[in-house]
Amino acid sequence: MTTQHKVPSRRVAFCAALSLLVSGVAPLGAQEADTAPDVAGDSASGLNIPQNLKIFGTNDPNLRRAAVRVNGEIITGTDIDQRLALILSTNNQSISAEEKERLRLQVMRNLIDETLQIQEANALKMQVEQAEIDQTYARVAAQNFGQNTQAMDAYLLRVGSSPASLKRQIQGELAWQRLLRRNVQPYVNVSEEEVKELLERMKSSRGTSEYRIGEIYLSANSQNKAAVFENAKKIVQQLGQGASFVAYARQFSEASTAAVGGDLGWVRLAQLPNELSSVARDMERGQLVGPVEVSGGYSILFMIDKRQVLMADPRDALLSLKQIGLSFPEGTTDAQVQQKAASFANGVKQMKGCGDVDERAHALGANVVSNDNVRIRDLPPQLQQLMLSLQIGQTTPPFGSAKDGVVVFMLCGRDEAQTNDGPSFDDLMNQMEDDRVNKRAQRYLRDLRRDAVIEYN
Description:
It holds the Pfam family Rotamase. GO terms for molecular function: peptidyl-prolyl cis-trans isomerase activity. It contains 14 helices and twelve strands. By secondary structure, it is α+β, with helices and mostly antiparallel strands. It has a domain at about 315-415: Roll (Chitinase A, domain 3), CATH 3.10.50. The chain has a five-stranded antiparallel sheet. A four-stranded antiparallel sheet has the order 9-8-11-10. A three-stranded antiparallel sheet has the order 3-2-12. Helix 1 packs across helix 4 (about 130-145) and helix 7 (about 190-205) packs across helix 14 (about 425-450). The protein starts with a strand and ends with a strand.
């Protein structure tokens, strides 16, 4: 059974920015699923549990002690709480206490993996220097706060996280990449014949559809299948309410694409398992579907984009636009907004092309901003279809709000999209090598977990 949702637009999360900055070689390996059996109902029938049980002892939230030791290194409750706060800051909706606890357990698993990766790098004398961590941290700040690291520090503290927590995550990802470059990548080979064969297959499939898909994969076995399915449904529910797919994929997905937000890149249906290809074929851009039962577990799919193989995509056209905007003074009533917006729309209709915009906009009390090289696919989905059918000198319908004002776009020029020649030989070879590195990375991390001494408090 699968459910379908449209995922609303959302701001870029720190997790997404971080993964784009530091995932240059290969993503982190798989994350472990919550395999704890459901003790309710029949599964608990063999246990002697009193109906009116009483918990002895207290839990003082102000007492910070070790939550887990990984090969003797302590991960505290504070460490977990601060990382959890970073994830919660990307969620536009309030979440239940049950959901928060589930996220907290996943964060703890991620911190265990992160600690193992850092320990392995240190043991092999491949430590990540503090200067490199600080440099990456500054790049994240530049992407989100315009070079102002103090502003990002303040934001992290305000949401209940800390700069130290984010820097620790950066250290873990950099350490893991360093390990993969030395211990995995040199042993991965892709022959020229393999690349040439794939290029030929792509050329022969010219005009067929390609899909850019996000995936969250949760492994399951016969013992925990029902619990994992329920877990997947809860994740789908949170995503449907506006949670960041990228952030949830990083924390929950057990696929090798977890560190890049579950992004599978551009794939064709033939490259997907049959269970997923049959679902992806009918998905629209922005649609969320899942959980879908696959071999070994469940997948949640998000359709990021679609295109035709080796064909020009009209949404890659570059537009020259004039943005005509009218703002409303504070205190303007709804009736006044309606009146002013109607008058503004009538005035826009009288404009005779882009050369006439500035003078008439001034008469309307509106401002004009010119925007060149705007790619259609970068616009909100609601505007993309409008722009595809717009002719030079035509405008969109007015849109906006009493708070933000009303805006129209006038199309002043269009450079049509060029034919897509597909990936180059080198790009395709790198993609195939990365895929094989990712699979070996999963095994590498699995070995680190197996050999670790982990003590829970």
